[in-house]
Structure to design on (598 residues):
């Protein structure tokens, strides 16, 4: 079986090591209340960033009277990371007009239908929860309106609070970028990015009806966005375009990958902006959709999945594969048409795809990769397990559109499966380009004579002491770990299929965070020769026994290993399918020897 050819490196989650660095950090995770209330709280938290951006704009907030008040407001509002930020957040309250009649009427009898505050600094701002159904940019303007009241400006004939609200609303709308999951029947789930006009950090959130994460793209101890002798002048973050990364039909889980980029403009310290230079960082974020299991491919696009936002952080990456999700994702898929929706094993799968170039690149050759809905998620570079089409040709259409004609000879012994195009690659001399169909179009492969699929019956770790507790925490499937200790993973497999790559996923704790390391062990283990020493496959009456010999390394990417846990094993089999086994309770802690963690 032909696998995608990328160098295998450890994968760490955002906070980790040299391969992937965090440039965006989720500062706060808000749950409960309504989605618009959480997003209003976000707007209140970052109101100074938005006001300051409007003041720096060369086109917005140019009215002399408005600018005079905005400069005063800019000095009054705190930044989100200022010492007074917590007390500022507490000023915002949400009250129902129905249950508190008269609250939203001013002292002179004017009805304040949306919000009310006093004409003095640090006064509470009450939001009418009965009247919150309006766009977020209007709420941003309204919050600016109420904050101007804190400076003593009333709603008089000059209409300064209203004029400022209009300016801030329009500025926020121009500088925001939004992408949603509407194509997956969750239009409420959205990613918002606000890019400031000149200076300051880009801000944003990842929000759904369940929860909201606020995110700032700024330097962290692991990711100094500019060199040591430079400082940030400005930055621009592109809002992610969401596409399916992988599907697991039997569990009903679909993982989406959001890809974009951040341009950071740096300048030497002590100089002006005329010497700015750019540093481009790729960013990515993953979100899980939980459908009813097993996934019904005939109706899943009309179902309403549950959003599982495990983390809202987005990390910059230097991995070659992750580059596909940034500026190199320059082709959009217009249509996918298969010659037949149902195929028989041993026949040819023919398809035509129309793509549009967004950067003027004219492709000469193409490669198509396809995945199956029963295949497991391959942790290698966060890409789905994929097989490549045998043939692909490019034909120029009108404008920037191109027709891709491709075919693949399906093995006669392959398992019945639902397949879709997961990746389109243009490996031309002018630089690789990529495209991702946002919603897959399936073909069904049938094979009445297929042998029974392989299955993993048991996975056993030998040579490590079983750990049942960590301090007062009860554990399952966990083992004591010591650097340099030899151990084995023994896997019992039922079925007559042969094996392609054998992949083991280990969870490894380092002082910098949790890592998931995908390890291919049926050949040279690139980067992991110090871990694997031997792999043996022995036939049994009902299948095979696979034994992996391992040595726990002292360090990974230069950081000492603190702990280890087996999370998943899976195999590619000779009938173009996969077999996998997930260990339960993978999020639990593991035993860390006191002298080993030092």
């Amino acid at each position: 079986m032909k696998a995608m050819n990328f160098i295998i490196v450890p994968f760490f989650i955002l906070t980790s090591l040299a391969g992937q660095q965090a440039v965006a950090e989720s500062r706060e995770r808000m749950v409960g209340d309504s989605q618009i209330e959480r997003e209003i709280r976000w707007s209140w938290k970052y109101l100074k960033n938005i006001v300051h951006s409007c003041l720096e704009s060369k086109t917005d907030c140019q009215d002399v009277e408005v600018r005079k008040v905005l400069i005063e407001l800019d000095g009054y509002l705190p930044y989100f990371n200022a010492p007074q930020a917590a007390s500022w957040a507490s000023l915002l309250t949400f009250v129902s007009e129905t249950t508190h009649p008269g609250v939203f009427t001013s002292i002179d009898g004017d009805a304040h239908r949306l919000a009310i505050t006093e004409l003095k600094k640090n006064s509470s701002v009450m939001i009418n929860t009965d009247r919150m159904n309006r766009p977020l940019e209007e709420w941003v303007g309204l919050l600016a309106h109420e904050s101007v009241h804190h400076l003593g400006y009333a709603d008089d004939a000059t209409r300064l609070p209203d004029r400022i609200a209009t300016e801030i609303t329009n500025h926020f709308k121009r500088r925001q970028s939004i992408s949603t999951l509407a194509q997956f029947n969750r239009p409420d789930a959205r990613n918002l990015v606000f890019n400031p006009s000149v200076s300051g950090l880009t801000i944003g959130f990842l929000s759904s009806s369940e929860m909201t994460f606020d995110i700032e793209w700024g330097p962290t101890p692991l990711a100094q966005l500019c060199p040591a002798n430079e400082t940030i002048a400005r930055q621009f973050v592109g809002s992610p375009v969401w596409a399916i990364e992988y599907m697991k039909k039997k569990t009903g889980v679909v993982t989406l990958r959001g890809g974009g980029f951040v341009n950071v403009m740096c300048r030497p310290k002590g100089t002006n902006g005329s010497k700015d230079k750019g540093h481009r960082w790729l960013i990515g974020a993953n979100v899980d959709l939980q459908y009813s299991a097993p996934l019904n491919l005939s109706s899943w696009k009309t179902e309403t999945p549950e959003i599982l936002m495990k983390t809202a952080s987005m990390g910059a990456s230097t991995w070659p594969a992750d580059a596909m999700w940034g500026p190199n994702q320059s082709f959009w898929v217009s249509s996918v048409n298969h010659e037949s929706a149902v195929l028989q094993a041993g026949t040819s799968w023919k398809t035509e795809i129309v793509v549009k170039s967004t950067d003027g690149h004219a492709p000469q050759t193409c490669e198509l990769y396809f995945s199956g809905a029963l295949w497991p998620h391959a942790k290698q570079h966060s890409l789905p397990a994929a097989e490549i089409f045998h043939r692909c040709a490019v034909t120029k259409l009108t404008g920037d559109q191109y027709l891709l004609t491709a075919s693949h000879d399906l093995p006669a012994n392959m398992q019945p499966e639902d397949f879709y195009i997961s990746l389109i690659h243009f490996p031309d001399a002018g630089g690789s380009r990529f495209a991702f169909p946002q919603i897959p179009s399936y073909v069904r492969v049938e094979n009445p004579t297929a042998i029974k699929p392989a299955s993993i019956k048991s996975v056993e770790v030998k040579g490590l002491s079983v750990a049942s507790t960590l301090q007062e925490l009860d554990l399952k499937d966990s083992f004591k770990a010591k650097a340099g200790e030899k151990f084995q993973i023994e896997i019992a497999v039922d079925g007559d299929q042969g094996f392609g790559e054998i992949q083991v996923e280990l969870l490894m704790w380092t002082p910098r965070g949790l890592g998931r390391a995908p390890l291919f062990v049926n050949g040279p283990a690139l980067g992991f020769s110090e871990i694997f020493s031997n792999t043996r496959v022995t036939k049994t009456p009902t299948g095979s026994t696979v034994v992996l010999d391992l040595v726990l390394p002292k360090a990974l990417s230069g950081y000492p290993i603190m702990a280890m846990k087996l999370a998943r094993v899976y195999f590619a089999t000779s009938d173009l399918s996969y077999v996998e086994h997930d260990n339960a309770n993978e999020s639990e802690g593991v035993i860390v020897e006191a002298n080993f963690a030092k």
About this structure: The mean pLDDT is 78.
